[in-house]
């Protein structure tokens, strides 16, 4: 689905879906989403912010912990997580067409 992305956690691809509720929760924790996008465009996004955004956007958490998401980000590396991050940030800026 447009706007969705995925990240591998414990060997399983997990869907990241930026729903309104997920983005509101992320904004409550991370501050204004536009500022988050600006920080990302300036290369100033922190690992904790990436993991938090991914955590809030997980379509189904199940038994997945927030630490699991952080470890998955570290295991994949910044280059690999930049693709799902860009997809989520694009969704925040552009919405669904």
What's the SSE blueprint?
Layout: E1 5-9, E2 12-16, H1 20-30, H2 33-41, H3 47-57, H4 66-76, H5 78-94
Antiparallel strand pairs: 1-2
Helix pairs in contact: 1-3, 3-4
What is the topology, as strand order, of the major beta sheet? Answer: 1-2
Strand count, sense and barrel status of the largest sheet are:
2 strands, antiparallel
Strand content: 5-15%
Overall radius of gyration: 12 Å
- The N- to C-terminal Cα distance equals 11 Å
Element order, helices and strands? EEHHHHH
Overall body shape: globular
Organism: Aurantiacibacter aquimixticola
Pfam families: Phage_TAC_11
Protein name: Gene transfer agent family protein
InterPro entries: Phage_TAC_11 (IPR021791)
Structure description:
This protein has one domain. Strands 1-2 form a two-stranded antiparallel sheet. It has 97 residues and is mainly alpha-helical. It has five helices and two strands, in the order ββααααα.
Which descriptors would you attach to this protein?
97 residues; two-stranded antiparallel ribbon; 2 strands; 61% helix; 10% strand; globular; Phage_TAC_11; Gene transfer agent family protein
Short note summarizing the structure:
By secondary structure, the chain is mostly helical. The chain has helices at residues 20-30, 33-41, 47-57, 66-76, 78-94, and strands spanning 5-9, 12-16.
């Amino acid at each position: 689905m447009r706007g969705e992305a995925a990240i591998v956690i414990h060997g399983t691809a997990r869907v990241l879906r930026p729903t309104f509720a997920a983005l509101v929760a992320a904004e409550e924790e991370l501050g204004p989403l536009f500022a988050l996008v600006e920080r990302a465009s300036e290369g100033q996004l922190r690992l904790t912010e990436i993991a938090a955004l991914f955590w809030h956007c997980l379509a189904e958490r199940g038994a997945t912990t927030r630490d699991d998401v952080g470890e998955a980000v570290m295991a994949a590396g910044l280059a690999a997580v930049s693709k799902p991050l860009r997809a989520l940030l694009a969704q925040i800026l552009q919405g669904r067409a």
